[in-house]
Amino acid sequence: MQHLTALELADWLADEARPSPFLLDVREPWEFETCRIAGSTLIPMHTIPARIDDLDEDAAIVCICHHGARSLQVAAFLERHGFGKVSNLTGGVHAWAVQVDHAMPKY
Q1: Which residues are catalytic?
Q2: Residue 6 pLDDT grade (very low, low, confident, very high; cuts 50, 70, 90)
Q3: What are the Cα distances from residue 103, in Å, to 24, 26, 53, 57?
Q4: Of 36, 57, 62, 82, which has fewest CB within 10 angstroms of its CB?
Q5: How confident is the model at residue 55 (pLDDT cuts 50, 70, 90)?
Q6: Domains of the chain: residue spans and CATH
Q7: What InterPro entries does the annotation carry (predicted)?
């Protein structure tokens, strides 16, 4: 598993020569409605086991949550189930709001 900082993810998303990752937001719906990284897809953590077949195991996936703990657990779960290109956003959307998108609401 890779660990990405908010700035590293921002650089990746801005790099047109590099395919964008699948941004997997594992927070709850109310959190996703409060703030989110553009282009992310909400699949709450507790639904991941039932929805694992909805994910492409060959895709680069960046797991995202509020501070990085839930997404770390999901990233480890995905790796145990054969996903080989999984990253965790260290610091989660909070780090994104502080380091990248200063207009993003914090909670």
Answers
A1: 65
A2: very high
A3: 21, 22, 35, 33
A4: 82
A5: very high
A6: 2-100 (3.40.250.10)
A7: GlpE_sulfurtransferase, Rhodanese-like_dom, Rhodanese-like_dom_sf
